[in-house]
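Lecture notes, unit on binding sites. The following record was shown on slide 14. It pairs a sequence with adenosine-5-diphosphoribose.
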Amino acid sequence: MNILTPPVSPPRDGRIVILTGAGISKESGLETFRDAGGIWSKVRLEDVATPEAFARDPERCHAFYNMRRARHGAADIQPNAAHHALVKLEAQWPGEVLVVTQNVDTLHDRAGSKNLIHMHGTYNQARCNRCEHVIPNTGDLSTSDVCTACGEAGGMRPNVVWFGEMPMEMARIYDALSDCALFLSIGTSGNVYPAAGFVAVVRKHAAAHTAELNLEPSAGATLFAEAHYGPATETVPAYVEGLLQSL
Ligand code: APR
């Protein structure tokens, strides 16, 4: 096992906030969005990932998300060493470890992360656009689905955050960012706000160390005090070992 020793060891009771993006799930077999050949090079996000797209052509949105939900549920898609390393950190770090993921896949959940926020929602829930009722959902959605709460048809949608919508649990996230000892950003290109701005929030409000673990420098790379570039299945377990050895 490789070990990356952080140049600054957070206090042992310090809170660690970890932002993750599509890159952490890449080696589990899921596509990222903005890498060459990524999802947004094949589909226009304006056609499938905005409230306007859903209003204009709900069948098309459903087809896109049904395909992706089915892919995520395939037997070969499993949590990888990076997801598992974050579970180990949560179990062994004396302070709080909070994972804030932009990913709508459930690989952190399946690995066993407990203190986890899905700021962009998750595929495995559906929400009624009419009354906001949320239900667990692992199957396909269609325009004929009826909401079990309000009885209306046509409004059931994946409980994910589309462009132009507010991410979830932002108050809790900003509270944690403002009072953390270490902020780690893993597998995200730093193109989508508000997540891309978290490092700036930490720099302004918390006396925290910041580190980026990514395949390549993100759009916000210069804002981090420390960076390690390589596949998440290598850098994340190595970084977690370094943190645990600092105890
Ligand atoms: N290990 C680590 N990082 C990786 C790996 C890997 N194996 N493979 C790719 N990456 C990096 C890429 O270099 C890139 O910087 O992961 C990042 C993925 O970036 P994006 O595709 O832009 O994904 P993300 O940052 O999560 O996107 C944010 O945009 O479309 C929306 O809602 C969607 O949540 C998503 C948001």
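Take-home: Residues 106 and 122 are 7 Å apart (CA to CA).
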